Amino acid sequence: MSEKQLMKGNEAFAEAAIRGGCRLYFGYPITPQNEIPEYMSRELDKVGGAFVQAESELAAVNMAYGGALTGKNVFLSSSSPGIALMQEGFSFMASAEIPMVILNVMRGGPGVGGIQPGQADYRQATRGGGNGDYHIPVYGPASIQETVNIIYDAVTLADRYRNPVIILADGMLGQMMEPIILPEARETVTEEEIRIQKPWALLGHQDKKERTVVKSLRLQPDDLENHNNKMHEKYIEMMEELPQYESYRLEDAEVVFVSFGSMSRIVREAMDHLAEQGIKAGMIRPISLWPFPNKAFDEISPKTKMVISAELSIGQMMDDVKCAVCGRFPVELLYRTGGMVPTPLEVVEKTKALLEVTK
Amino acid sequence: MKTVFEYTRGMLPVTTGYCPGCTHGIAHRILMEVLIERGTLGETIGVAPIGCSILSHNYLNVDMCESAHGRGPAVAAGIRRALPDKTIFTYQGDGDLASIGAGEIVHAAHRGEKFTTIFVNNAIYGMTGGQMAPTTLIGQKSTTGVDGRKKEVSGMPLRMAELLATIDGAVYVERVALDTPAHVRGAKAAMHRAFEIQEKRLGFSFVEVLSTCPTNWGLPPTAALKWLADNMIPYFPLGILRTPGEVK
Fold it and tell me: Are B217 and B137 in contact (CB under 8 A)?
């Protein structure tokens, strides 16, 4: 473990990916994540890696696929509109079972939108923005430290499942600075180790073995269905293994917030203000957004009057909250969008208004 | 007894799914012969496109991946960063390379990527059933231009070799054809030069291969070869458009 140090979010994310084992990065400039390609362009050379500024996000995601199909770990980052362009590659990599760590430093949408923090890529990420039956584990960390840890762990998680992993940060986490402790750098893996650990990787057959093929085309419908069924088994395993959350003050809570990422920190502060005013508030903070931590909702007290989905999007997460609540409590929405971020006091006022209406 | 001809071990012993008279088979074989003669078959990664030759990985005895439509050059650029010492090629058709992947090929050339692109130009979309390509000739009929390509509607056919030859990083650009045995030998020699340039890491190397599509041209195989000679070569002239001094 390194010393605690003050780092800007985007630079810490890039360093976490390098320490996690990613020696390859392909990117395209887009705000608010530009410090990541800038950092990679400076640092990857020093660790024997490579950086390419691609001509587009479309090219970047396909370069990343090319790098990763050799068994090496690849890091990919962008922000909302750029991530939208990359969906072709995400669907392809899921189908071809190529690991990838993807960071989306989200901004406001739709379209080109704005450059301020948002969470309106929730649905795109958790439902899969590309074509076909596939899933990508999605995480929504709430601090720079947590994002660093999740990026670091995502490298091995992506390898284990042979699947991309998405981390949803936002413009706030990317641009702010926090004290963090960086994880130890993993050793660089040699080609010989990759040949043993990842027999699917393309490294040349050396005239010693049958050729290896990485593909996503399956023209025979039964072959494609079998492949999708096999992939689905993997997704079921993820659904059992990956749900992750934190809960705060759920016992006797009158109102329970569900909130992730930057927004959860604002809500956390609002909870203290509400407590001062005699309103008991709790929170479920999903850390994994897909699979959504449905079990967390069993912890909600029967005395709770209301569950509030608090998000920087217009009810995108609320669909998952309603599914998890499953009719047990009324579910309301508290949001700002388009890059607007509420203050804790704004959350307090809106919460009181929602409670007032249901009285 | 002296063996005078052998089926190349660069090709897998399977029957291809290509139409009768299609020249993909010839292009595949000479490409694989080149890799064997250069001793690099076992250290090669190939990138297949979208189009008929997405199936090339069923026939070519090298490690291969598929790529999304047109993205082969980006995929190959990624592979090159991961594997600095291997031989890498993309094999792309004219819809894949000149239309949807025009951006990726231009920027691969622009960066002087150290891989080789084999561009099979048969002036039509094959796999999807005969639609107009950027390379379809004026007057040539297609299912999306039943009266023949018109300049006013679709522009003039795109000459990719000439376009790429304007880019500094594309150090070797040659156009060849597969219509006669002499031209096939010339195509193979061009591929040798292209891979030699890759091995020397001089920059991006590109071989455009004029090919036939008897099925979608609506011609018997021999007539298709003649059509290529009579119609394609005059518009897409053969020859070396760029070559570095290091390679003769």
Answer: no
